[in-house]
Design brief:
about 220 residues, two-stranded antiparallel sheet, alpha+beta
């Protein structure tokens, strides 16, 4: 086996490998997405319409046009729990929809941001909201587990000078090492020729073969 020294490149490659593993695990729980034309899309427009006039719903039909603006691009929807804490965000395309909201609502060139509470949502969207909250929780839990692993892997590598030492101390570490380093580790390496040195035993004429044979025979007979 070859000696694989811990370099900054090796360290970064292992950390990057852990992060890629995290991204793969987290991808099982997709981010909330609302496609145009889907039932969730129409329900979200309804929720936006409710949320936009939350402060004065009774005046919704009395707003003059000069107090409104038409959303020309998209809407960044911040979904909130009833206690005000934000659960997650998503974006929907509102181009050519004719969605109008009060002019005071925050907006940029590409999107308008609207806070939507669960209570603003019609019943089908509340079900979708609950599903997304559950997925978000699983996504966060998974990311947190990998963050802990990453921290432990970093601390572990800091205590070793080589991959050889890391694998000897903890074979499980191999599962986080990029394959190219494992391939290098498994390379056959010719043993270095040892420098011939005259031993003291040879100098004083000790019969080393006899010494060994007697010891072995003693172990067998005792």
């Amino acid at each position: 086996m070859a000696y694989v020294r811990k370099t900054q490149e090796f360290y970064d490659a292992v950390v990057n490998n852990v992060q890629n593993m995290k991204n793969k695990a987290v991808s099982v729980y997709p981010l909330p997405e609302i496609e145009r034309g889907s039932p969730e899309y129409s329900h979200t427009l309804e929720a936006i319409n409710t949320a936009a006039y939350r402060d004065a719903p009774h005046l919704k039909d009395q707003y003059p046009d000069t107090w409104k603006k038409t959303v020309s691009k998209g809407v960044k929807v911040d979904f909130h729990r009833e206690d005000g804490a934000m659960s997650f965000s998503t974006n929907i395309d509102c181009e050519h929809v004719g969605l109008q909201v009060p002019a005071h609502i925050s907006s940029g060139y590409f999107s308008t941001t609207i806070a939507v509470f669960r209570s603003d949502c019609p019943a089908p969207l509340q079900t979708w909201y609950d599903e997304q909250v559950a997925l978000n929780g699983k996504r966060s839990d998974t990311a947190e587990k990998y963050a802990t692993v990453e921290d432990q892997i970093k601390r572990y590598m800091s205590q070793h000078a080589s991959l050889n030492g890391m694998l000897k101390d903890m074979p499980e570490f191999e599962m986080y090492v990029p394959q190219k380093y494992m391939d290098k580790f498994h390379e056959e390496v010719e043993p270095r020729a040892k420098k011939q040195q005259q031993s003291i035993a040879d100098d004083i004429g000790i019969d080393r073969d006899a010494i060994a044979a007697i010891a072995i025979a003693n172990r067998v007979t005792v």
